[in-house]
Write a structure and sequence with these properties.
This is KIB1-4 beta-propeller domain-containing protein. The chain is built from 1 helix and 7 strands; from the N terminus they run E-E-E-E-E-E-H-E. By secondary structure, the protein is mainly β. Strand 1 and strand 2 form a beta hairpin. The N and C termini lie far apart (30 Å).
Length: 85
């Protein structure tokens, strides 16, 4: 994906992939399905009571939305504040 970014993250024992196509502003979330003989990425329409925190870098994280007082089923893009350097 030349015009976007991909993050891999683990959340509550599940593996997720978040893909962002910056050219068209599309965000897609996939969950690794290990139930079949061959593992496969499946589209995830809902991430439940989770939030994904995606930084400019490569290390993403997740947390329980209700525990963090954030809206559930959301992806937050974190931008580094240059004034903090």
């Amino acid at each position: 994906m030349e015009s976007g970014a991909v993050w891999l993250l683990e959340s509550d024992g599940e593996l997720f992939q978040v893909r962002v196509d910056r050219k068209i502003g599309a965000v897609a979330v996939y969950r690794m399905d290990l139930s079949d003989e061959l593992p496969a990425w499946r589209a995830a329409r809902d991430i439940g009571d989770r939030v994904f925190l995606l930084p400019d870098g490569i290390v993403a994280t997740s947390c329980c939305a209700s525990a963090c007082n954030l809206k559930r089923n959301r992806i937050y893009f974190m931008k580094e504040n240059d004034g903090d350097r």
